[in-house]
Amino acid sequence: MGWAQLLLRHLHSPPGDARVLEVHQDGAAEVTLINITRISALTGLALVLAFSACDKNPTGPKVVNFPDPNFEALIREALDMPAEEIMPEDMLGITELDGFYNEITDITGIEYCDSLRYLALSCNQITNLAPLAGLINLKTLRLNSNRIADISPLSSLIRLEAIELGSNQFTNLAALGGLINLKRLTLNRNQFADISPLSGLINLKN
Predict the structure, then answer these.
(1) For residues 33 and 19, is the Cβ–Cβ distance under 8 A?
(2) Could you report the per-residue pLDDT of 144-165, keeping only the tens digit for each?
């Protein structure tokens, strides 16, 4: 139970001293006495909200999580950070990422690469493109020969100029219909039948 829960429970108790347990980041615990008779309803609510904010991030700065060790190794190589904890701000320094034949299955963590403009991860085993959905600065995306069945997360990447998605498993091209800046598109060896969503992509050159 955090600060907020303990304090909130005592706000509904009879007047007197409330003992509130605070656990610090280093694991040390401290008991604090708060006299409930001196806390008004509004002051109590403000304290609850303040302590709630502290409870939500008890461990300090967030470290980027990489479930796939092969993808983590690629990121570490790009950042020249072989062992250090990788923070979100570190990921902002990556503008290009190239990792063919790395046996990558999960690209979770790439969502912090807000400056990424070029991504080449062909010939891996990637299935989920959801982590790419917010990378609006991407201009080139090369994902041939993966296991991608759903390309809908690409629909928001309106700055894309080149996409390579050959040899995957998707059947629907609707997500590409709004990518009006596309100039190059490779879709061979997939399972779609309807190419009408591409009719508005007037800048395509091939």
Answers:
(1) yes
(2) 999 999 999 999 999 999 999 9
Contact 149, 170 (CB under 8 A): yes
Six token digits for residue 202:
């007037």
Chain centroid offset of residue 155 CA: 17
Angstrom distances, CA of residue 75 to CA of 17, 54, 68, 85, 142: 52, 31, 11, 12, 17
DSSP conformation letters of 124-152: S-----GGGTT-TT--EEE--SS-----G
pLDDT tens, residue by residue, 36-62: 444 455 445 444 444 444 444 445 579
DSSP H helices, the chain, are 3-11, 41-56, 69-79, 88-91
pTM recorded for the entire structure? 0.72
Distance of CA 28 to the CA centre of its chain: 32
- Round to whole Å and give the CA distance between 91 and 96: 11
The amino acid sitting at 155 is: S
More confident residue, 1 or 79: 79
